[in-house]
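PROTEIN DESIGN WORKSHEET
SECTION A - STRUCTURE
LENGTH: 494
TOKENS:
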């Protein structure tokens, strides 16, 4: 409990590090427990950080890795006691692997008993009742959504690959109901944990109380050890819920609803989902194909996948079958797409720019592939690019940012990466223009604009741990800011 305001002022230096800027509340509107701001929170301010209470492979399509060190880039051997994968003797006896290994070795009835990676995380949760009983009870108190999960298409497979093999061991105090609740808790509450050479899932108890919103106000950052930091991506007012987007910000309403229903067992009715324009982002939008009409085609009822769509300018009704046909064609065209084939990417973008809104999420995904390829792929390095290439890249960056500024605003990773690309392209185009017009004032204006974007990218990317996949970019941006600042000073003296 925090002291009074008067006491806080006296001991603020020592009190600040332990003063939480959030609290856990309960309300009907937020469907039970949730996290709210206990005071105003600044964008970029850390809300919480923690290591996972338990970590392990996914329940479906788990990625092979050593169960001692969680490395996936080593040669894997079979543990002599449980036959699960490890990379060597040291990891065979590691405390992490012993969570499942000791139980299997103790209760298995014959050498032929084989357990898949799917069983590892449930085994590890069961082991907590002996090693950390308070953590075990906390995890069991989490929402399982069991009634909904048992209706899912994967439930039968989970029974065969996880529930039945574990129950066959006859572990004391482990019954079907307990095990099925644990599966539900895993499916409902885990976060994806991307390590340098492995893809795992983990339970982070307090962080799991953050509810979903299709425009979240937080950014989740993971370091190479799996530690999670939750940071405010935008300012959050006192007593406002602290939320994050469980799905991709650039997913359309149809895709988000499908993902949430299949993987989190609820449907969303936030203001973005209820708005046909998705708050002006048009991430689901198509283009009106009527001659001389430049309107946007949007759903008449966003949450009804059977309802027709219409143009917001000429009011022309577009049968939903036409929308589905376009999306099906795009899906077919992208199935075999080589993301490193810049010519094919350009061709596909050109094809669907006439059918989809310029900020459509599926189109934005293609545009981001092209943006990323410029300056990096063979034949498209900076020295290979002409002015038209740079101008196309500039346009695409602005269009994707136009959507992200609405659906993934503030200090989001996606915006940080694009702002860096934007600054680079602006500097190059400014130099090309200066070579033609020799106008130092115009050059200065463009460079100052690029400096503004780079400064914002710096603020965003500094939140990344040095060991994250994007951690190196922060130091690159710092160097670029120094170099650009010196260049600007030179131009000012022209």
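SECTION B - SEQUENCE
RESIDUE ASSIGNMENT:
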């Amino acid at each position: 409990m925090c002291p009074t305001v008067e006491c806080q002022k006296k001991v603020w230096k020592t009190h600040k590090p332990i003063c939480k800027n959030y609290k856990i509340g309960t309300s009907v509107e937020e469907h039970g427990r949730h996290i709210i701001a206990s005071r105003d929170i600044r964008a970029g301010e850390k809300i919480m950080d923690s290591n996972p209470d338990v970590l392990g492979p996914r329940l479906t399509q788990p990625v092979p890795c050593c169960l001692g060190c969680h490395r996936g880039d080593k040669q894997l051997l079979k543990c002599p006691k449980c036959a699960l994968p490890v990379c060597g003797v040291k990891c065979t006896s590691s405390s992490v692997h012993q969570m499942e290994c000791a139980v299997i070795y103790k209760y298995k009835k014959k050498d032929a008993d084989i357990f898949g990676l799917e069983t590892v995380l449930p085994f590890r949760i069961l082991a907590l009742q002996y090693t950390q009983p308070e953590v075990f009870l906390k995890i069991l108190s989490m929402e399982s959504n069991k009634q909904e999960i048992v209706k899912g298409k994967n439930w039968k497979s989970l029974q065969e690959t996880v529930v039945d093999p574990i129950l066959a061991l006859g572990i004391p105090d482990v019954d079907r109901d307990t095990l099925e609740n644990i599966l539900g808790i895993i499916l409902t509450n885990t976060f994806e944990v991307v390590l340098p050479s492995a893809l795992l899932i983990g339970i982070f108890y307090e962080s799991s109380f953050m509810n979903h919103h299709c425009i979240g106000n937080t950014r989740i950052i993971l370091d190479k050890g799996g530690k999670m930091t939750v940071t405010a991506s935008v300012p959050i007012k006192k007593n406002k819920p602290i939320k994050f987007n469980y799905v991709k910000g650039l997913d359309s309403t149809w895709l988000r609803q499908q993902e949430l229903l299949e993987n989190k067992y609820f449907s969303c009715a936030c203001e973005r989902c209820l708005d046909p324009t998705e708050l002006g982002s048009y991430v689901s939008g198509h283009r009106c194909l009527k001659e001389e009409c430049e309107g946007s085609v949007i759903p008449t009822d966003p949450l009804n996948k059977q309802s027709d769509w219409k143009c917001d300018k000429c009011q022309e009704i577009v049968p939903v079958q036409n929308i589905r046909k376009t999306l099906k064609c795009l899906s077919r065209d992208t199935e075999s797409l080589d993301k490193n084939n810049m010519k094919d990417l350009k061709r596909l973008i050109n094809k669907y720019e006439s059918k989809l809104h310029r900020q459509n999420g599926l189109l934005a995904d293609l545009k981001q592939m092209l943006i990323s390829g410029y300056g990096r792929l063979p034949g498209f390095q900076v020295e290979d690019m002409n002015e038209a290439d740079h101008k196309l890249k500039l346009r695409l960056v602005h269009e994707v940012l136009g959507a992200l500024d609405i659906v993934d605003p503030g200090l989001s990773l996606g915006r940080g990466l694009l702002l860096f690309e934007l600054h680079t392209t602006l500097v190059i185009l400014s130099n090309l223009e200066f070579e033609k017009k020799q106008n130092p004032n115009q050059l200065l204006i463009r460079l100052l604009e690029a400096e503004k974007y780079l400064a914002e990218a710096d603020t965003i990317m500094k939140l990344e741990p040095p060991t994250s996949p994007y951690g190196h970019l922060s130091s690159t941006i710092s160097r670029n800011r120094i170099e650009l600042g010196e260049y600007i000073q030179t131009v000012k003296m022209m």
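SECTION C - NOTES
The first helix runs from residue 5 to 15.
Residues 65 and 71 are 5 Å apart (CA to CA).
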